[in-house]
């Protein structure tokens, strides 16, 4: 069984029935499902919520037989196709108006279709949040608590370096080194994402970097007067 490189560990835990991983997966990807349902298929919020439940239930049910070839497609493309086809299935079963296609009514989207490209654009619009979550997870795995605390106080909260050193009981040079170390790790992680997925727009990676540096929990407008926690 092959897994996508992005969120590989999370998917492995979901496949093995880890409830905490499933909860994380659900919260991470629900916004993408709702966005495709409302922006692409123009479903009502109520119908979009129904589609969300259908998709997540189906995905969880098939987790043990889940097969994904990361050499052929990115996870976001794979997931986007599942969303779109489940929406079409939902409309058919509930006798709703179908999404309009150039060549008539289709029962399933295929690679290269204009409609699937539109779905992929919507998915990409919301992918920054997924990347931000992944960046935080990888960052926490590579940086110890003491180093991050110095980085948080000095680089994220912009406190005076001498005050940070006094508070943490370390030297000023160690604070500078902590900042250097953390920025290097963050740069490495973003480079890895770009290497694994060259199609990621530079603007997407920039948004993730800025959100991380601002200490924000989500991509969007910056929190006012909020520092990293």
Care to describe what's here?
It is elongated and about 70 Å long. It has two domains: 118 residues, RNA polymerase sigma factor, region 2, helix turn helix motif (Rna Polymerase Sigma Factor, Chain: A, Orthogonal Bundle), CATH 1.10.1740; 87 residues, Arc Repressor Mutant, subunit A (Orthogonal Bundle), CATH 1.10.10. It is built from ten helices and no strands. Helices cover 66% and strands 0% of the residues. Helix 4 crosses helix 5. It is mostly helical.
Q: According to CATH, what is the class of the largest domain?
A: Mainly Alpha
Mind describing the biggest β-sheet?
Answer: none
Q: Count the strands? A: 0
Considering the protein shown, what is the CATH homologous superfamily of the largest domain?
Answer: RNA polymerase sigma factor, region 2, helix turn helix motif
**CATH fold group of the largest domain:** Rna Polymerase Sigma Factor, Chain: A
List the uncertain runs.
1-6, 100-107, 221-229
Number of helices: 10
CATH architecture of the largest domain: Orthogonal Bundle
H/E element string? HHHHHHHHHH
- The oligomeric state of the chains shown is single chain
Name the overall outline: elongated
Distance between the termini: 38 Å
Rg (C-alpha, Å): 21 Å
The proportion of residues forming helix, as a percent range, comes to 55-70%
Coarse structural class:
mainly alpha
**What amount of the residues lies in strands?**
under 5%
In round numbers, the mean pLDDT is: 78
């Amino acid at each position: 069984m092959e897994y996508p490189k992005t969120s590989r560990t999370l998917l492995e835990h979901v496949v093995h029935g880890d409830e905490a991983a499933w909860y994380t997966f659900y919260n991470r990807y629900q916004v993408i499902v709702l966005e495709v349902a409302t922006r692409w298929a123009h479903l009502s919020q109520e119908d979009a919520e129904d589609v969300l439940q259908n998709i997540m239930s189906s995905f969880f049910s098939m987790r043990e037989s889940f097969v994904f070839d990361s050499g052929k497609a990115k996870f976001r493309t794979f997931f986007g196709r599942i969303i779109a086809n489940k929406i079409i299935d939902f409309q058919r079963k509930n006798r709703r108006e179908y999404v309009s296609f150039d060549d008539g009514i289709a029962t399933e989207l295929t690679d290269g279709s204009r409609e699937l490209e539109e779905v992929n654009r919507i998915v990409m619009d919301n992918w920054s949040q997924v990347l931000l979550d992944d960046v935080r997870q990888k960052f926490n795995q590579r940086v110890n608590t003491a180093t991050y605390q110095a980085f948080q106080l000095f680089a994220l909260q912009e406190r005076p370096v001498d005050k940070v050193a006094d508070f943490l009981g370390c030297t000023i040079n160690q604070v500078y080194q902590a900042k250097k170390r953390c920025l290097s790790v963050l740069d490495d992680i973003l480079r890895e994402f770009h290497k694994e997925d060259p199609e990621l727009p530079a603007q997407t990676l920039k948004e993730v970097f800025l959100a991380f540096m601002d200490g924000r929990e989500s991509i969007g407008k910056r929190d006012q007067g909020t520092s990293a926690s």
